[in-house]
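Thread: Cation-transporting P-type ATPase C-terminal domain-containing protein, structure

OP (GT): Posting the sequence first so everyone is looking at the same thing. Length is 372 residues per the record. Can we get the structure tokens written out before standup tomorrow? I want them in the notebook alongside the other entries.
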Amino acid sequence: QDGSTVEVTGSPTEKAILSWGLELHMKFAVERSKSAIIHVSPFNSEKKRGGVAVIGRDSDVHVHWKGAAEIVLALCTNWLDVDGSTHEMTPDKANHFRKYIEDMAEQSLRCVAFAYRNLDPKDIPSEEQRINWELPDNDLTLIGIVGMKDPCRPGVRDAVELCTNSGVKVRMVTGDNLQTARAIALECGILTDPQASAPVIIEGKVFRAYNDAEREAVADKISVMGRSSPNDKLLLVKALKKNGHVVAVTGDGTNDAPALHEADIGLSMGIQGTEVAKESSDIIILDDNFASVVKVRPVCNLMIFSSTVDIVSLSLFTFNVLGGPLGSFCLCKYPKVHSIPAYCKCCGSYNQCGCCYFLGQCSSKCCSASLG
């Protein structure tokens, strides 16, 4: 109102949607004043959606859902046109929307759908009971589908190529659907064959359904895992460790904590990372950039990583370290040449000159503690 710059906060996906709304000159404060939030169902990484129940001035109650496009679409029995008219979601119309989703996904766009349903005020539980209230997600009306570009950061493709040339196999584990995951992996150089199929590219639910022996058998073959959950990451880490790999995991969310803890080396994101993720990790990457990790040229054979919005599918890494006695990997082979923004939890300091080694001992000038 006073001409000052608008600050948009939230997750990268939320910020992208809100920024789009600002470009459309939407009046968020006006819209929010027309209703009040009575319950929130946070985004669930297993269900791939989150919802909110609001009550308007006229006491009408609406439940709104936002999440993975194809998953939200499957819950819709109606759709809303640009004139505000509601129509039945026929099989032909559902296929029409799925084609839109597939087309956007093939362009490496992250697809998000919005839907809502009306709710009888009598069905709203008391305040004491709302804590365990599961918002209804059936008979939804589709409002719209948006595609958001999550471009590779500058240097990521070169970093992946550096890994490949150094004998490092890079794998991507992401919550995106297979089409989006494939497109991003091709863009980043993780995949080179556009026609790659299972088990090179696999869905999380398929990997999850395997028994332990089957997971161990396919783990080394996987290059891309789409529609994965945090638990799928954990299962993959365990399978790789069973196969004899020394595993390092990076993540930024609270749900990544089990995988970070299970890994031999945990790397968390310093900007987008939650405190739980940071506490569960051994190293904090201050700029959230994959290129900052690989420029240290670690001695390794295998790396797997999964998608976060900010760093484009770079949140889970696995390193197969050469030389069993090492038990870790070297962060800086040439400290005077390669400088990384890393935080040493051993001595509790930031290594300004990039001289902190992890060869069984922290050799930063400020620390000589053994890392075991």
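GT: Both are above now. Quick notes for whoever picks this up: The first strand starts at residue 35 and ends at 44. The longest helix spans residues 91-106.
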